TrEMBL record:
<protein>
    <recommendedName>
        <fullName>Tetraspanin</fullName>
    </recommendedName>
</protein>
<feature type="transmembrane region" description="Helical">
    <location>
        <begin position="74"/>
        <end position="94"/>
    </location>
</feature>
<feature type="transmembrane region" description="Helical">
    <location>
        <begin position="101"/>
        <end position="125"/>
    </location>
</feature>
<keyword id="KW-1133">Transmembrane helix</keyword>
<dbReference type="Pfam" id="PF00335">
    <property type="entry name" value="Tetraspanin"/>
</dbReference>
<keyword id="KW-0472">Membrane</keyword>
<dbReference type="InterPro" id="IPR018499">
    <property type="entry name" value="Tetraspanin/Peripherin"/>
</dbReference>
<keyword id="KW-0812">Transmembrane</keyword>
<dbReference type="InterPro" id="IPR000301">
    <property type="entry name" value="Tetraspanin_animals"/>
</dbReference>
<dbReference type="InterPro" id="IPR018503">
    <property type="entry name" value="Tetraspanin_CS"/>
</dbReference>
<comment type="similarity">
    <text>Belongs to the tetraspanin (TM4SF) family.</text>
</comment>
<dbReference type="InterPro" id="IPR008952">
    <property type="entry name" value="Tetraspanin_EC2_sf"/>
</dbReference>
<feature type="transmembrane region" description="Helical">
    <location>
        <begin position="220"/>
        <end position="241"/>
    </location>
</feature>
<feature type="transmembrane region" description="Helical">
    <location>
        <begin position="29"/>
        <end position="54"/>
    </location>
</feature>
Length: 256
C-alpha cells in the first residue's frame, strides 16, 4: 500500500508538470505571435514616419511652441517605442523569461495608463485646450513662408486648400502676418499666382480651426473605434503577458 502511494506521487507530479508545460507552450505561441504582429506594426509606423520626414515636411507641425511635435516625429517616436516593447515581448516569450515578461507587462501598462490619463485630461480641459491651441496656431502663422519653415508652410497650404478655409479664426488673421490686406494663395476660391492680393470676395471665409474641429467631430465614430481597438489590443497584450508569466511560474514549480 505504501509502495503504491509512493509510486503514485511521482506520477502525479509528472502529470502536473506535463500539463503545466503544455499550457505554457500554448500561451507561449500566442504571446510570440501577438508580439510579432505588435513589432511589425511598430515597423510600419516607423516607416511611415520616416517617409513623411523625407517628403519636404508636408505634414509638419503647425505649432510655434512645439516645432518638433510634427506628425512625422510623433510616428517615428511611437513606432520606435512599439518596436521596442514588441521586441521585449518576443524575447520574453521565446526565452520564457519572467523578468522580460514582467518588463513587457509594466511598459504596456504604463502606456495604457498614460493614454487613459491624456484622454481624461483632454475632455476635462477641452475649453482651455481650445483657447491655447488657437493662440499658438495664430503665432505659428507668422512663420509661414519664412526660411526653415517649409513644413509649416506646406501644412497650412494643404489644410486651407483641402478644407476650403482661411486663417485660424478668420481670414483677417493673415492681415497681421503680412501687415496688409492679403492672404496666402491657398485661401483663394480659384487658385492662381498672387490671387491672395485680390478682393476678399475671392477667398474662402470659413475659419480653419472650427472647420477641422467639425470634421473631427463628424468622424468621431471612426476615431472612437480606432481608440477602442488600440485599447483592446493593449489589454490583450497585458493578458497574454500575465498569463504566460503565471504559466512559467507553475512550470518552474511543478517541474523543479
Amino acid at each position: 500500500m505504501t509502495d503504491s502511494c509512493a509510486a503514485g506521487g511521482p506520477r502525479a507530479e509528472l502529470k502536473r508538470c506535463s500539463m503545466a508545460r503544455g499550457c505554457l507552450q500554448g500561451v507561449k505561441f500566442l504571446m510570440f505571435a501577438f508580439n510579432l504582429l505588435f513589432w511589425l506594426g511598430g515597423c510600419g509606423i516607423l516607416g511611415v514616419g520616416i517617409w513623411l520626414a523625407a517628403t519636404q515636411g508636408n505634414f509638419a507641425t503647425l505649432s510655434s511652441s512645439f516645432p518638433s511635435l510634427s506628425a512625422a516625429n510623433l510616428l517615428i517616436v511611437t513606432g520606435t517605442f512599439v518596436m521596442a516593447i514588441g521586441f521585449v515581448g518576443c524575447i520574453g516569450a521565446i526565452k520564457e523569461n519572467k523578468c522580460l515578461l514582467l518588463t513587457f507587462f509594466v511598459l504596456l501598462l504604463l502606456v495604457f495608463l498614460l493614454e487613459a490619463t491624456i484622454t481624461i485630461l483632454f475632455f476635462a480641459y477641452t475649453d482651455k485646450i481650445d483657447r491655447y491651441a488657437q493662440r499658438d496656431l495664430k503665432k505659428g502663422l507668422h512663420l509661414y513662408g519664412t526660411p526653415g519653415n517649409v513644413g509649416l508652410t506646406n501644412a497650412w497650404s494643404i489644410i486651407q486648400t483641402d478644407f476650403r478655409c482661411c486663417g485660424v479664426s478668420n481670414y483677417t488673421d493673415w492681415f497681421e502676418v503680412y501687415n496688409a490686406t492679403r492672404v496666402p494663395d491657398s485661401c483663394c476660391l480659384e487658385f492662381s499666382d498672387s490671387c491672395g492680393l485680390h478682393a476678399p470676395g475671392t477667398w474662402w471665409k470659413a475659419p480653419c480651426y472650427e472647420t477641422v474641429k467639425m470634421w473631427l467631430q463628424e468622424n468621431l465614430l471612426a476615431v472612437g473605434i480606432f481608440g477602442l481597438c488600440t485599447a483592446l489590443v493593449q489589454i490583450l497584450g497585458l493578458t497574454f503577458a500575465m498569463t504566460m508569466y503565471c504559466q512559467v511560474v507553475k512550470a518552474d514549480t511543478y517541474c523543479a
